[in-house]
Amino acid sequence: MNPDDPQNALSNAKDLPNEIVNDIKQYPCDDLEVVEVKAITEKLDLEVDDTKVIEYEVEPVKATVTFESNNTGVATVEDDGKVTAKGEGLATITLTGSYGNYEEGTDTVIVNVREREDIELLSYHEYWDGNYWYVVGEIKNNTDKTAKFVRVDLRGYVNDSIKYTDFTYSSPSELAPGETGAFKFMIRESNAQKFDSFLLFLYWSD
């Protein structure tokens, strides 16, 4: 029998021991490609009943991304990545990307949920007009009662020491449930120079 005969070589291949064949199966020639999924925001800070859609990037772009919460009592997530804050605490949302024969890729988003404040500071900003330093902002009544005499206190600090205090009332000074109001501080330059940081405090009565 001619050892160089192709037919003979094929016959010999069929007679390979099983252990050699098994070894070959354990070492595939090509590594699987992996879906790359990356959440744009790694952490969400929400209040109860807030909603936020998780933004992400995925490669290949046609890959399917699914979402799962490990604590639905704190935060739930829908198929489109919309997160709803349910209760105070922490939850982890896992994003999983899948595509054909690719190996699945994952990423996570931490969701920190806190209880909604009765009177909430929605926003504020500060500016200087050459003579006065202004702090203006907006607050909201999250209770089911009318909030009366809604007052905003400003305390100016140097390190941990209070160096300046001021207060103002919201406009309007009474806020119905769900209503928002505005506030404004106008501080002289000489007073503004007394502190290098400040905190705002909210007070109200029903």
From TrEMBL:
Gene3D superfamilies: 2.60.40.1080
Pfam families in alphabetical order: Big_2
Domain BIG2 stretches: 43-97
Transmembrane segments: none
InterPro entries registered for this protein in UniProt: Big_2, FxLYD_dom, Invasin/intimin_cell_adhesion
Protein name per Swiss-Prot or TrEMBL: BIG2 domain-containing protein
Species annotation: Candidatus Syntrophonatronum acetioxidans
